Structures are given as structure tokens and as C-alpha cells.
Amino acid sequence: MKNIYLLLAAFCLTLSTAHAQWSTAPLPSGGRYFLAGATAGSTAIFAGGIGMMSIPPNVFDSYNNANGIWSSGS
Fold first, then answer.
1. How far apart are CA 63 and CA 23, in angstroms?
2. Contact 51/73 with Cβ under 8 angstroms?
3. Which pLDDT score, from 0 to 100, does residue 23 have?
4. What mean pLDDT is predicted for residues 20-37?
5. pLDDT band at 72, cuts 50/70/90?
6. What is residue 73's three-state secondary structure?
7. pLDDT over threshold 70, residue 18
8. 1-28 in b/e burial notation, b at 16+ Cβ within 10 A?
9. Average confidence (pLDDT) over 53-69
10. Start-to-end C-alpha separation, the chain
11. Alpha helix (H) ranges present in the chain?
12. Nearest to 18 by CA among 49, 47, 48, 39
């Protein structure tokens, strides 16, 4: 019986996730695969990954949702 309540709680928490919108816009520093991302407030940061020649670039891209501006650095 306890497992049913845990399953129901997990199901309800899964349904309450945030809505997101995918974009096909390229990152300012170029395309990468397997990059990591994190958010803090209205800023999303994307870093690492594998570049077009399988070399991990030491760059990051950040997007500020409050003003819609992309920035990048190393």
C-alpha cells in the first residue's frame, strides 16, 4: 500500500514540471554536442561539450531571459 502512495506522489511531481520551449537557434560560440546546462534566476548557462572535431572547447554561453541577450566567454 505504501508503494502505491509513493508511485502516486512521484507521478504527481512529474506532472508539475516547468513548461519549456525548444529553439533551433545556434549558440554564439558554435555548435556542440553533450554540453551541460544550468540555470540561476533568469540566466541559463551552457558549457563544455564536444565540438565539431571532437575537441572539448573551453567556452560557455549564457542566455539572460529577462532581456533576451546571449553572451559567451572562455
1. 12
2. no
3. 65
4. 73
5. confident
6. strand
7. no
8. eeeeeeeeeeeeeeeeeeeeeeeeeebe
9. 81
10. 53
11. 2-15
12. 39
